[in-house]
Amino acid sequence: MTTVAIITGAGSGIGLGCAEKLSAAGMCVLGVGRRADLLEAMEAHLGDPQRTASLAVDITEEDAPRRIVALALERWGRVDFLINNAGAGSPKPLLETDDAGLDQALDLMLKAPFRLAREAMPHMAPGAAVINISSTFGVIGGLRGGAYSVAKAGLWGLTSHIAAHYGAQGIRSNVVAPGVTDTPMTAGRYEDVRFQRMNVEMTPHTRLGTVEDVASTVAFLCSPGGSFINGQTIAVDGGWSSTKYLSEDALNATWTFADQT
Q1: Nearest alpha carbon to residue 215 among 65, 9, 43
Q2: Is 148 labeled as catalytic in the residue annotation?
Q3: Is 32 helix (H, G, I), strand (E, B) or coil?
Q4: DSSP 201
Q5: Which residues contact 166 (CB under 8 A, 6 or more apart)?
Q6: How far apart are the C-alpha atoms of 178 and 212, rounded to whole Å?
């Protein structure tokens, strides 16, 4: 039986990685994003026109959820998995965030997933699932998290509601919360010494996260092996958010203090 996955933000990064994994598992994939050129490249990369489609649309637009779900139904007649992945990140602290920035974050990373899940779920059968890609900044808040942390944390509320209210119908929902992952969104950040210290020196693993790590977790949740996992947040971060780890370099660093006079 053919299964169908809708993936937002599918043109690059984690979304593209999810498209690769789910396509390789034999699923039909509808990739959604803003840039038609990236989506065309995704389709060419997956290399199976019968099982791949894309839609270039701003998911915050009023009619976007209807258009997305309608295309999946038109092509394959069903929706099995919804991967709410689209996001943007240049977080600013609370006092540096204006209303426009707040609205943009909430519209893209909370309201759009809510509306898309609302549109897709009437077409989902037992065994289907909604997977919301959050962030460790949604789990613990994080320095400079601001509106980004608020939107990503809100996905947990959406997820737990779906898990509780629709779980008895056989529809699951879970959160995947990546830590800092090497994607176009984080390009250039690794050159920032403070960024390196906050992530490398506080991750009790020998490396930072990759798209493969996150996409593999999503694929597992869409597989029979993940079929009894519901209402959970899985942090894919090497232990960054759940430990108080500091590297030997950090522990042995010389402390300096700002002049308080």
Answers
A1: 9
A2: yes
A3: strand
A4: T
A5: 121, 173
A6: 11
| Angle made by CA atoms 179, 38, 215, in degrees to the nearest 5 | 30
DSSP three-state, residue 191: helix
- Residue entry with tokens 């509780």: 164
First to last CA, the chain: 71
What pLDDT is recorded for position 186?
66
What pLDDT is recorded for position 26? 97
Q: How far apart (Å, rounded) are the C-alpha atoms in residues 222 and 61? A: 27
To the question of pTM greater than 0.70 for the whole model, the response is yes
Q: Which amino acid is at 141?
A: G
Q: Which tokens in the block code for residue 168? A: 């008895």
CA distance 147 to 104: 9
Instruction: Select from 49, 3, 4, 12 the least CA-distant residue to 215.
Output: 12
Query: Which of 148, 166, 190, 245 is the catalytic position?
Result: 148
Segments of the chain scoring below 70 in pLDDT: 184-190, 257-261
Residue 74 buriedness (CB in 10 A; 0-12 / 13-18 / 19+): exposed
pLDDT at position 201: 83
